[in-house]
Amino acid sequence: MAGSSMRDSAAERIGYITRIQCFSACHRLHSIHLSDEENKRIYGKCNNPNGHGHNYKVEVTVRGNIDRLTGMVMNLTDLKRFIEEVIMIPLDHKNLDKDVPYFGSVVSTTENVAVYIWDNMVKALPPNLLYEIKIHETDKNVVIYRGE
Questions:
Q1: What is the percent of the chain where pLDDT is above 90?
Q2: Distance of CA 64 to the CA centre of its chain
Q3: Active-site residue among 46, 59, 111, 132?
Q4: Which of 27, 85, 93, 148 is catalytic?
Q5: Per-residue pLDDT tens for 22-40?
Q6: At residue 15, what are phi and psi to the nearest 5 degrees?
Q7: What is the distance between the alpha carbons of residues 15 and 74, in angstroms, rounded to a whole number?
Q8: CA-to-CA distance for 64 and 58, rounded, in angstroms?
């Protein structure tokens, strides 16, 4: 029907699901490729040799067709399990620099934490579902990564 707001019932509908998870971790912003002086100048108080911690809030968003039979983009129980395996087990209550091998050679900025989560979530999820990783490091600092 011309001008109708109704969509063809055969058309695929795209939906987005976001699951929010919090984890706590400590780290030190320090690059092995820079001198101690350069690290102090670039990272300031975040280069404290004893590190510092955050209560991170991570939003994992998936995007896909809404299945006509189940009414879901994906089962939230499965998404919760993937988040537990990819985020909570390796990162929660850990020293990112010492306990997570990836950060042995990569500076543990929130940008790189987002990349780490993306790279591991994309392996765990069904193909082409992961849309976005959003990390709230603080109430004022938020990083978004979409695999680009």
A1: 93
A2: 18
A3: 46
A4: 93
A5: 999 999 999 999 999 999 9
A6: -125, 160
A7: 10
A8: 20
Residue of 85, 136, 137, 148 marked active site: 137
Q: Is residue 90 within 8 Å of 108, Cβ to Cβ?
A: no
Check if 137 is active-site.
Answer: yes
Would residue 59 show up in a list of annotated catalytic residues for this protein?
no
Q: Name the DSSP letter for residue 45.
A: G
Active site residue 136: no
Q: How many CA atoms lie within 13 A of 51 on its CB side?
A: 14
CA dihedral 121, 125, 131, 132 (to 10 degrees): -20
At 142 the three-state DSSP class reads strand
Supply 148's token pair.
Answer: 């680009």
pLDDT of 11 reads 80
* Tens digits of residue pLDDT in 102-139: 999 999 999 999 999 999 999 999 999 999 999 999 99
Give the pLDDT band (50/70/90) at residue 10: low
CA atoms of 57 and 50, how far apart (whole Å): 23
What crossing angle do the helices spanning 76-83 and 110-124 adopt, rounded to 10°? 130
